[in-house]
Amino acid sequence: MALSGGTTDRGSHSMDKSITLPPDEIFRNLENAKMFAIDIGGSLTKLAYYSTVQHKVAKVRSFDHSAKETDGDLLYEISVQEEITARLHFIKFENAYIETCLDFIKDHLVNTETKVIKATGGGAYKFKDLVEKKLKLKVDKEDEMTCLIKGCNFVLKNIPHEAFVYAKHADSEFRFQNTHPDIFPYLLINIGSGVSIVKVEAEDKFERIGGSSIGGGTFWGLGALLTKTKRFDELLQLASKGQHTNVDMLVKDIYGGAYGSLGLTGNLIASSFGKSATTDKEFSKEDMAKSLLHMISNDIGQLACLYAKLHNLTRVYFGGFFIRGHPVTMHTITYSINFFTKGEVQALFLRHEGYLGAIGAFLKGAEEDSKLLRPNKVLLLSH
Ligand code: ADP
Question: Domain residue spans in the chain?
Answer without folding.
Answer: 3-58+77-157+356-382, 163-247+283-350
